[in-house]
Amino acid sequence: MSTGLPAGPLEAGPGGFAPQEERAAVLAGVLECVEMGAWDRRVARWLTELDTSTLVTVASWIARSRAAGQPR
């Protein structure tokens, strides 16, 4: 996705369209360095089959939680 992920809370769906290959790349990017088991990979593949707005929202949660740093 050329525009990147939302950096803050979403008040509406981010919209847009990206082909499944691009959605898979976005998810792989935010999950980089996360050890994945067979079930994890199956769920990640399922997420890439959802609409772009849903995938972008989930990926932005992951990215924003990483950016937030240490758990409270």
Major sheet characteristics: none
The low-confidence runs, each spanning 5 or more residues with pLDDT under 50, are none
Helix content: 40-55%
Quick check: average pLDDT? 92
Span between N and C termini?
31 Å
Could you describe the 3D structure shown?
With 72 residues, the chain is mainly alpha-helical. Helix content is 54%, strand content 0%. The protein contains three helices and no strands.
Supply the key terms.
mainly alpha; 72 residues; 3 helices
Short description:
Helix content is 54%, strand content 0%. By secondary structure, it is mostly helical.
Give a topology summary.
Blueprint: H1 20-30, H2 38-48, H3 52-68
